[in-house]
Amino acid sequence: MTNKEKYKQAFSVLHTSEDFTMEVEKMAKLNNVKRNKMLTAAAAIALCVIVGGSTTAYAANLGNIQRQIQIWFKGDQTDAIMNIKTTGNTAEYEVICEHENGTVHSMHGGGVALDDKSAEARPLTEEEIMEHLNEPNVFYEDDGSAWVYFYDQKMEITDKFNDDGVCRVQVQHGDITYYMTIYYQQGWHMNTDKYVD
Amino acid sequence: MKKDLKKLMECYQQNLYAVAFNVCKSKEDAEDAVQETFLQYYTGNYIFESEQHIRAWLIRVTINKAKNANRTFWRQNKMSLEEYMETLTFETLESEHLFEAVMAMPQKYRIVIHLFYYEDYSIKEIADSLHISESNVKVRLSRGRTMLKSMLQEEWDDDK
To answer: Cys-Cys link to B113, which of A149, A167, B138, B144 (CB 3.0-4.6 A)?
Structure first.
């Protein structure tokens, strides 16, 4: 008997429970309802608020603008269209880009920035939004793998989470190093000096 | 191409369960990983080029979902590996020893060994599936074999 035959014989003892197939079929029927709920939750967390000491000048009458920009998306530099809508002291943005594999992606976000001196809230500027878009990003792929992307770098982190579902990685671009603490599918913290929990 | 879910389960359910169990060493987590994989296949908008493509996708997704199950905090109070093994009926004592030996190996060697010996995957296919280099696969395979040989002695042949 070859090693392969021995191995297959040993592992042929593994079988799913008797009601496994029925369970999957039942869950498949229920799944559409669950997916709709998840999409609503994802939309609710898409809004991000950036509070920081920016001194960038801001044009108060920015209104609605559209820009053709270049962003790094999943390790590839790609053309994108950015729409910014300003309402009161909040700026919302939408970025639409086409990945090189042909899929179209859209990213949404926005929020306010607090002015350094007056501490008054104001909408994010175009530059601040671009800065935010160029920060490291974490993606969970359909195949269950997890990745960190930063400019042209991509790092698989699927196996780097500890038992508590926390992963710490550093990414670097030029002089800047980001220390990222990533909570499995629950967001991440990053800092340019140290890991923050 | 996209196959009917029922047919897909008939074809791959047991193999995927074996792969998932190999990663997470838990009956419940392995079944959850396989269930989630089938559900993702069912609900996702995937187009596959061939049967081989479907199989590779299912195995890759199952492995990742089983790895994810390893880090969920509600894993407690599940059947231990020892308890589960008592429910299994091995054909021979050698099979039981081999199963135990594989389960005693670290996960990164276990999964490479499983894909090679159970799924008949090539080095390249293992590398693609695990997102690691072919040379890394060769190293893991070689170390895995050495571990098995040292644990099983004459019950495991030297692979060329």
So the answer is: B144
Distance CA A190, CA A177 (A): 10
Inform me whether the C-beta atom of residue B79 falls under 8 Å from chain A C-beta atoms. Answer: no
Q: Do A146 and A110 belong to one domain?
A: no
Distance from CA of B111 to the nearest CA of A (A): 13
| pLDDT at residue number A43 | 40
Residue A12 forms part of a structural domain: no
Q: Burial letters for A62-101: b for 16+ Cβ neighbours within 10 Å, e otherwise?
A: eeeeeeebebbbbbeebebebebbbeeebbbbebebeeee
Q: What is the pLDDT of residues A161-171, one digit of tens each?
A: 888 889 999 99
In order of start, what are the domains of chain B with their CATH numbers?
1-79 (1.10.1740.10), 89-152 (1.10.10.10)
Best residue in A3, A4, A32, A162 to probe B by mutation, most B CBs within 10 Å?
A3
Q: What is the ipTM of this complex?
A: 0.92
Calculate how close chain A gets to B114, using CA atoms only, in Å. Answer: 8
Specify whether A122 is located in the same domain as A72.
yes
The answer on pLDDT for A59 being more than 50 is no
Domain count, chain A: 3
* Residue A166, min C-alpha distance to chain B (Å): 9
Considering only alpha carbons, which residue of chain A is nearest residue B113? A7
Residue A50 pLDDT greater than 80, yes or no: no
Least confident of A51-55, B1-5, B71-75: A51-55
Tally: H helices and E strands in chain A: 3, 11
Q: Is residue A152 in a domain?
A: yes
